[in-house]
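Internal tracking record. Fields below are filled automatically when a chain is submitted to the structure queue. Please do not edit lines marked as system-generated. If the sequence contains nonstandard residues, flag them in the REMARKS field before resubmitting.
Queue: standard
Priority: normal
Entity type: single polypeptide chain
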Amino acid sequence: TRIAMATDESPSPFPELVQQPTPEFLQRKIYFLVDHLRAMHSELPENLQTRISYDLLTELANCVLNEGIFAIVKALMELQHETEKHLVKMREQVANGYEIEVAEWRSKIKDPEELDNLLGLMRNKYTRKLRDSDKQIIEILDQKVTDQQSTLQKAGVPGFYVTDNPKEIKIQMFLLDFILRLSRLKYEPLK
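SYSTEM-GENERATED OUTPUT FOLLOWS
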């Protein structure tokens, strides 16, 4: 029999000494993953349970045997969080611009009627600016979803394909959640 000498931190200088998982080990791990996926699946509302088949769960379990899928999903999530932070700042800049301009006009204009009229015009201007900013944010987020779907489809993750159907996207969000939850589990074959 071969002896496992390599660690996760560094590649073995003797790759022939790294033990490959046996088919039995892989089968037990798939059962472990499928059991957890079925438990997660049972927590979903019934209308979503019917949309995610046990076959899809089994395909997902087989897919995440390649733990590189976890790294892809985590990287996509981190990228999404950074994008969301950037978009929040972008929207805040528009809102802050309004507050700054209001303060400037309040200090310059002393006539209350003229100030009220000007502030009304500014409110309309910034409402339009916020609406435009929100449209741009939605377009960026929609593109981010499409990019994620495409990446996961190319990585071979079952259930992922490019769609703008809200029901399908919701299912994909649950599948992503399942993958993230599986990534936190540790499979210990001797237990």
